[in-house]
Amino acid sequence: MFVPCDRGGLSAASDFEGFTLLMPAVSVGNVGQLAIDLVISTLDMTKVGYFYTDCLVPMVGNNPYATAEENSTELSINAEVYSLPAKKLVVLQIRSPFIKNKYRPFCETLLSWVKSSKCARVVLLSSSHAYQRDDEQLLGTPLRYLLTPDLEKAVGGLMQELNWKEMEKVAAYPGINDTDKVLHIPGGGITKLLFTESCSKGIQMAVLLKFCSEGDNIPDAFLLVNYLNEWLQLIKSEVSTSNNSTDPSSQWKIPSSWRLLFGNGLPPALF
Amino acid sequence: MATFFGEVVVAPSRAGLDEEEEAREETPEDREIRRELEKKRCRRRGEIDVLWTWRSGGRAEEPLVCSRFIVAIGRNAAAFLSSFILDSVCWEVVGVVKLWNEWCRTSSTTNVLPTDSFCLFYRLISDPTVLLCQCSCYVAEDQQFQWLEKVFGSMQKEGLQVTILSTCPVADYKTQESTLTLASPFLKALKTKEFQEQVCCPLLEQPNIVRDLPAA
């Protein structure tokens, strides 16, 4: 599945032992994917390979993180892997939806790749339909986390310190029987499947998700990536001198491909 | 979804998953009916056949030696090849792709009308390593990978140069100005870093992308 880029002598480029794999779920508002774009763009991560898969709709374009003429002509496809060895971070970006009936094979292949490449843990960024929240979830933070039992042992305490909220389970048979609780992540794409499979395979996985709706999801992406940063500390959150708050939003670099998300310019003849 | 200005942009479900959990509400009979429909669809639509006509039995056993492969995808690109490149003197038909999906069906006949849906391969008689493909049929997204593997799987790929011709609506082109004032049609290109020759037109700028079979 994983095809490394030909980078000459950098054979270590595809050695991910002990790394954290950060990846998005294709979910409501594409928030996970937008957040991953911010991470790759800000940390100026190097592409180390891609996934050759028949599970995602094909697409291709020029480098979405281009900053200048010189680096704008590298082709980019639907599932690519970037790495930053200094932070032991490897990032998978997914840029197109799943082909019908292919999401299960993708999840299976992905998790085998995680095991074979010996990644220490997986952090999945996702989102869920805001309109499905219950009364309690409507109040307070729209951000949630989930940890597989293996990761819970390692970092569960840290989540408590950060005052994070765990994703609530819902009644399996609402109105009939409130005692059987299940995990329900509407609009989360493959999130639930990946999480439950990781639990059963003993993979350390964390899910970070935000409740949101379709629309302009850029602010949601910023909130989610700042949430991630509270834990992984990917960038330093500098204290802002103007209002004395630690808001690292301005330190995330928006990639050039985020231009024109809401349509082209207006025809002058209109006015 | 409406943009800032109010033009309507198609935003299909981004969760990208049919909510198959909802299927738990079905009765066993509904589930059986759905499964049978899926099976029928898969049976008819599943296999893509690539039939090479110069080989006995219609299937290539050895890989085809190919130096240049030009693929025209979509009716416009296919028509371009028909109008300006193909003729019965210099080119011969060497293969056909047979497939079925909800949008079109191709047959194994090589005698096609311009209005048919077809996917044919031609070879330059004077240089049999130059291959051309005219694909005017729609290859569905769950067939694209198979098309790719079967077509390229028949070819020896060392030293192969591939050129893909395709068209997109101008309205899909993302640019700072309005597309109404753009002089169209216009050409844009994408190329791999291995392609060292001069490209005849500007490269496709971000955030534009190409999808479906040309992307595959």
From TrEMBL, chain A:
It is found in: Nucleus. Keywords: Chaperone, Nucleus, Phosphoprotein. GO terms for cellular component: cytosol; nucleus. GO terms for biological process: proteasome assembly. It holds the Pfam family PAC2. Belongs to the PSMG2 family. Chaperone protein which promotes assembly of the 20S proteasome as part of a heterodimer with PSMG1. The PSMG1-PSMG2 heterodimer binds to the PSMA5 and PSMA7 proteasome subunits, promotes assembly of the proteasome alpha subunits into the heteroheptameric alpha ring and prevents alpha ring dimerization. PANTHER family: PROTEASOME ASSEMBLY CHAPERONE 2. Forms a heterodimer with PSMG1. The PSMG1-PSMG2 heterodimer interacts directly with the PSMA5 and PSMA7 proteasome alpha subunits. This is Proteasome assembly chaperone 2. It comes from Menura novaehollandiae.
TrEMBL record, chain B:
This is Proteasome assembly chaperone 1. PANTHER family: PROTEASOME ASSEMBLY CHAPERONE 1. GO terms for biological process: proteasome core complex assembly. Keywords: Chaperone. One of its GO terms (molecular function) is proteasome binding. It comes from Menura novaehollandiae. Coiled coil: none annotated. One of its GO terms (cellular component) is endoplasmic reticulum. Belongs to the PSMG1 family.
